[in-house]
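FAQ: What does a ligand-bound record look like?

Like this one, built around zinc ion:
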Amino acid sequence: MLKNEMILINGDILTLSKKKERAKSLVVKNGKIHEIDPPLPQDIRSTDQREVIDLGGRTVIPGMADCHVHFTHVGLGLIFPDFRGASSVGDILDGLSTALKDHPRDQMLLGWNFDENLFKERRLPSIEELDRVSGGTPIWVNRIGMNTSVFNTRAWERVHLPLTFASIPTGPLGNLLGSISGDANWVALARVLNALTDDVRMQAFQAAAAHVAMKGVTSIHAMEGCFSPNMPDQPDFACLEIPCLIQNKDRIDVDLAIWYQHIVDYEKDVARVKAFGLSRIGGDAFTDGVLGAAFGPGVLRAALSEPFTDDPSTRGDLLFKDEEIEKFVWLSWQAGLQFSAHAVGDRAFAQLMTSYEKAYQKRPGNGRFRIEHATLPDRSWLKKAIDMGVIFSMQPAFDYYSGGPEGRYAKRVGPERARLTNPFQEILHAGGMIVGGSDAPVNPIDPIFGIHCMVNHHYPEQRTSSLEALKAFTFNPAYSVFEDDRKGTIDIGKQADLAILSGNPLTVAPSRIKDIHVEMTIYKGKTTFKSLHI
Ligand SMILES: [Zn+2]
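The answer part, i.e. the structure of the complex:
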């Protein structure tokens, strides 16, 4: 039972508020911060109505946010087999056989995150192999990064993509080979998700909420719907996970700021977002491809101003024409919506910022527009972007995994340009705001690790202070979706979203930040995670 009052005592409470920076005790009532450091009797105890928690000196921070999460996919990855690290086709087939044992036969069985480069066979599972283990159940398994998938005959029958669609590979007899990539895969994936039941969707959402609570997360900025501009040709195609998420928000124990990224027809998309009562659009909509990920079939490259070092024949791919993105941004801004889009390379950065500048020229204001990733910002645009109030939604784990002189960025673009990637300190120094995220399921949801990566950037000149990094996962996210009046700091009257940590990220040695554990998470005054230690 949820007691209506919770009292936290003996804490080291970092409020991130200007009013009172540090406190020892907190009273939470009806889901909100009710009092900070009130006079309390020495021997205060729990009662039927009141839960008293002795923090034993632990650090308390505002509940954290992850500002870039593919929430539906994270949830589906939790309730269906995750093949990350699988080392053979046999592993996949065994995993599917096990999962099929208690799976309803007529429902699609999904699988996620395999990487055939790690398989000893160095190839994808075939349609025949999947048919053989399936027992008639439709099976759809996605590669890590979701650029390629494999499926069996039953699943293909449900998806109904014409074989002429976007170069679907076929064998010598015109037979289906059982794998697709790129645009065909995005379209197929959207249809596969539409074939799920709301029950399955809810299982996925609730699994994802429980998962993020373990990491101290109380707010998610969810990137939902299709995200390639080359998406289904039918203007009335709807991503059904979005209405399900909206209708059931109250049954999911984490705040969700939904970024609707479905792009079929700009006018219709704007109207649809308004009809849903949502206030933002774009999200992770691709304006270009990727920089750090392994390139393979269906993977598009980031759009750069100069050619790639590992393939000088290309400067990467812009997915929108200038006039298209300008129209999309303008229609959104005209309708009062907040806008963001995925832009990794400097050429995509410049294109997106140009579209923002043009929209603001037509109708001045500050819509708190964001840019997702901004991995290699165009330096001639950086200050102008900041002056327009553009917020940088970045995923520090990418620097950890792909940055540095030996990393994947350096292989793609050479050491000089790699040194310009994920420029956290440069953005802050110019007066910009960064909001932190993971891009889960690409990187794990783990804001403490994100803070660690900002403070320990590969290049010393781009490292931030731990306070700046902490704000990137607490206050700034709230600001970036117009929720700073009710979240992001520990202040009286704000939502009681708290994370209780095993150590203080502001005082621990920078190299040890990642070793801090979340020991308890409180969302709207309710305990959503508690470790054994507390
Ligand atoms: Zn993205």
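Follow-up question: can I read anything off the structure? Yes, for example: The chain has three domains: 5-57+493-530, 72-194, 287-464.
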